[in-house]
Design brief:
The chain is 20% helix and 37% strand. By secondary structure, the chain is of the alpha+beta class.
């Protein structure tokens, strides 16, 4: 499944890029339906590239009757992102923690 989205931010590109790459956990704290984003790993596999592995935990505002069926692991996933500075590209893979097989 492929998703594509476009957002226009009226801020300098470098500032937005570095903020998203280097401060995602702090940004996530400001999002209503995200419980947390915890960085698990960060490395530089090549010059100008940053690989970041993060664990996301969602906290959606679900109706009470659904909460008895929704387990916490259903709302968690691992995000592995490769940030390519020179190209201004970020490629990522998302792996759910529930029914991942």
């Amino acid at each position: 499944m492929e998703f594509k989205t476009t957002a226009v931010l009226k801020h300098p590109q470098k500032i937005v890029w570095w903020t998203m790459r280097d401060h995602l956990p702090e940004i996530a704290e400001m999002q209503q339906e995200i419980q947390s984003v915890q960085e698990q790993e960060r490395e530089h596999p090549a010059p100008g590239q940053t690989r970041v592995v993060s664990i996301w935990r969602a906290a959606p505002d679900l109706p009470g009757f659904l909460m008895q069926y929704v387990k916490p692991e259903m709302l968690q996933w691992t995000d592995t992102a490769i940030w390519k500075d020179e190209l201004w590209e970020c490629h990522w893979e998302i792996s759910p923690h529930y029914l991942s097989e």
